[in-house]
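Incident log, support desk, overnight shift.

02:14 A customer reports that sequence design results differ from what the structure should imply. Their input is reproduced verbatim below. On-call engineer (initials T.W.) acknowledged and began investigating.
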């Protein structure tokens, strides 16, 4: 399998079809918990209210912090729910788009979004199935490790020689089978069960290729993530310094810099999310029709 071609075409499709970036912004997103520990933070030390046009008695008129936490938590939960829903819509949408671009067909952003809505409930079911299967597998590994450590420390340490590789195998298996199942479901328009069957078969029969694409995915994630962080710093720092030069204190300057830098973050995040989604989609095509994938269709003029 030509992994170089897969990577190159992933970037090529992402660059030539920039409307995919809208889908990639949500499809490539990850979801994690937020930890807010505001109890010991004294904002009065860091924010100069005079510099942002507020009076000295602003803090005295603020409601208790406890009254602000509930709306803040509700806002975060609703925002995460929105991101999750958009993720489940945009992943099948971008798969549908790349399928039409790489294998022949007419791609449009509206058509792909319609496809994303069509597969929403199946993708939700697949996500829940994958989530509980992964959680159960890891919980069993942890339970086995606890049992071995309770027997004897030496036995527990020896068990790690098996349990740790098993943990990484579970991560690789779940990531690849889940990703291949998503592609199978959209490309063939089949049920979750049939798509899982094909995804498992492609993983089992081509394990080495699956391992290599996983390592490439991790490597690109680290490398491009660092590059994106450097771009954000290059753009964000000058904005922050300009704002500070206008007499604004540090924290407001950082906040303003982050807000003004959001367009750059959206562009970079959308492009990288598209590249990562393309990677597994083109890998799936190579598995099911080796060497038969057409060259990506160029973006229409204008």
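02:41 Re-run completed on a clean worker. Output:
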């Amino acid at each position: 399998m030509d992994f170089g071609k897969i990577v190159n075409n992933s970037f090529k499709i992402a660059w030539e079809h920039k409307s995919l970036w809208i889908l990639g912004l949500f499809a490539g997103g990850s979801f994690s918990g937020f930890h807010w520990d505001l109890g010991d933070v004294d904002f009065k030390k860091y924010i100069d209210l005079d510099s942002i046009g507020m009076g000295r008695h602003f803090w005295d008129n603020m409601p208790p912090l406890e009254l602000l936490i509930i709306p803040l938590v509700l806002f975060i939960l609703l925002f995460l729910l929105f991101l999750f829903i958009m993720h489940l819509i945009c992943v099948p949408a971008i798969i549908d788009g790349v399928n039409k671009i790489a294998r022949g067909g007419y791609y449009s952003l509206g058509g792909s979004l319609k496809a994303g809505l069509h597969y929403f409930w199946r993708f939700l079911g697949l996500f829940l199935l994958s989530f509980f299967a992964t959680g159960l597998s890891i919980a069993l590994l942890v339970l086995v490790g606890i049992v071995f450590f309770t027997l004897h420390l030496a036995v527990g340490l020896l068990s790690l020689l098996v349990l740790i590789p098993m943990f990484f195998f579970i991560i690789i298996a779940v990531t690849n089978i889940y990703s291949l199942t998503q592609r199978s479901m959209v490309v063939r328009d089949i049920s979750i069960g049939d798509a899982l069957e094909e995804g498992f078969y492609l993983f089992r029969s081509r394990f080495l290729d699956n391992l290599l694409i996983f390592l490439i995915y991790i490597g690109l994630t680290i490398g491009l993530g660092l590059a994106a962080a450097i771009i954000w710093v290059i753009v964000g720092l000058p904005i922050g310094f300009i704002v500070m030069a206008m007499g604004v204190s540090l924290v407001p300057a950082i906040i303003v810099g982050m807000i003004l830098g959001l367009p750059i973050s959206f562009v970079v995040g959308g492009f990288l999310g598209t590249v990562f989604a393309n990677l597994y989609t083109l890998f799936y095509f190579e598995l099911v029709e080796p060497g038969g994938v057409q060259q990506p269709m160029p973006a229409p003029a204008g």
